[in-house]
């Protein structure tokens, strides 16, 4: 067989080619390199994607706890108690009943696996507690807040927002779990629990007297720096990156599906715990209902940081958005707003007015 190959090669070589080869090897090399076809990146396939796997857990709860901070620049900010979720993937784009599948194998993650917290936001928030936002907190509660706002426990995979793992990144898909859309500890590939402290700005659980498909809790964090830090995280971990609004009020919104993946009626979120005395394991804590989540109440929110897909102008799932996924809520202090601010009355009261 070898002689035949040599004969074929000799026969195919034209005199002109042999002349060019004998004249200059460098010229031949240059000719080959300049004639190489250009590599063009293939456009991402236009296929549907799944919604975040954020079905609430009603019987079993995470073993660790987290806080959710909210953002607002002015103490006079008008905070509405009921407002529907806006940040979550629209229902008409992908129904929450879809099961997690191997779609990620066919649609590469828009956010690269090399993305880490330390790379996208290298400078954490400098101030985590603003005295103006904790003026109604007694000294024992203040000591509690100091501990919670600086909490970092690698073994429990739980961190205060200010102290996230610098090397935390989007997880990986294994034979048993798909954590590609959750911020994970790279050593364990487990979603990290994020604690955020803040005052309730608004909540959304019920629509027309029934649990809505999605619920949300929006909070004002204990400092504007922490709110801006969360804003930068959400922006940098989205693809393409979202613009950071330096004039943003600093509210942090956490969202979760109340609709089961398997279908059926939405189930009211019930992972709400009384933490006014001490934080313990969930199984040892008293559970509360949503009536305790009043505006201005001080809470600790436990979240995961997740990403979800959106369609671009061409109908392709190339846009990735980051958001905080609600895991649990812990009540530290009931609403202590003066009764005058709680009143439903509108208008200005002018004492002694007679016209």
Question: How does this structure look, described?
Answer:
- It is a single chain.
- By secondary structure, the chain is an alpha+beta fold.
- It has a domain at 103-335: OB fold (Dihydrolipoamide Acetyltransferase, E2P), CATH 2.40.50.
- It has helices at 2-12, 15-23, 25-34, 103-106, 117-120, 139-149, 224-236, 339-342, and strands at 152-153, 158-160, 169-170, 183-185, 190-191, 193-207, 210-221, 252-257, 272-274, 298-310, 319-333.
- The strands form 2 sheets. The chain has a 5-stranded mixed β-barrel with strand order 6-7-8-11-10.
- Residues 1-12, 21-38, 95-114 have a biased composition (Polar residues).
- Residues 1-114 are annotated as: Disordered.
CATH homologous group name of the domain at 103-335: Nucleic acid-binding proteins
The major pleated sheet works out as:
5 strands, mixed, barrel
The class by helix and strand makeup works out as alpha+beta
Radius of gyration: 28 Å
Q: Output the CATH class name of the domain at 103-335.
A: Mainly Beta
Keywords:
3-stranded antiparallel β-sheet; globular; single chain; 19% helix; 355 residues; alpha+beta; 11 strands; OB fold (Dihydrolipoamide Acetyltransferase, E2P)
């Amino acid at each position: 067989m070898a002689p035949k190959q040599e004969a074929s090669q000799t026969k195919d070589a034209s005199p002109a080619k042999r002349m060019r080869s004998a004249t200059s090897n460098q010229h031949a090399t240059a000719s080959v390199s300049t004639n190489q076809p250009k590599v063009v990146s293939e456009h991402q396939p236009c296929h549907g994607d799944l919604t975040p796997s954020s079905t609430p857990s009603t019987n079993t709860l995470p073993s660790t706890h987290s806080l959710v901070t909210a953002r607002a620049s002015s103490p006079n900010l008008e905070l509405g108690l009921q407002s529907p979720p806006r940040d979550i993937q629209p229902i008409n784009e992908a129904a929450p009943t879809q099961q997690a599948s191997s779609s990620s194998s066919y649609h590469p993650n828009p956010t690269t696996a090399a993305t880490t917290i330390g790379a996208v936001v290298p400078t954490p928030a400098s101030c985590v507690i603003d005295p103006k936002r904790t003026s109604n907190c007694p000294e024992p509660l203040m000591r509690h807040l100091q501990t919670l706002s600086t909490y970092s426990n690698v073994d429990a995979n739980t961190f205060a927002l200010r102290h996230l793992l610098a090397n935390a990144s989007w997880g990986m898909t294994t034979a048993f779990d798909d954590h590609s859309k959750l911020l994970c500890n790279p050593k364990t590939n487990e979603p990290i629990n994020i604690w955020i402290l803040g005052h309730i700005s608004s909540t959304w659980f019920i629509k027309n007297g029934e649990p809505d498909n999605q619920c949300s809790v929006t909070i004002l964090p204990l400092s504007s720096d922490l709110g801006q830090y969360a804003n930068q995280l959400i922006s940098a971990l989205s693809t393409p990156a979202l613009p950071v609004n330096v004039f943003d009020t600093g509210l942090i919104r956490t969202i979760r599906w109340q609709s089961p993946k398997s279908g059926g009626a939405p189930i009211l979120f019930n992972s709400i715990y009384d933490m006014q005395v001490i934080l313990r394991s969930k199984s040892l804590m008293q559970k509360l209902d949503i009536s305790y989540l009043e505006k201005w109440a001080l809470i600790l929110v436990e979240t995961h940081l997740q990403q979800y897909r959106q369609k671009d102008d061409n109908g392709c799932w190339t846009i990735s958005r980051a958001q905080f996924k609600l895991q649990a809520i812990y009540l530290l202090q009931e609403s202590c707003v003066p009764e005058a601010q709680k009143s439903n009355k509108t208008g200005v009261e002018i004492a002694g007015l007679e016209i």
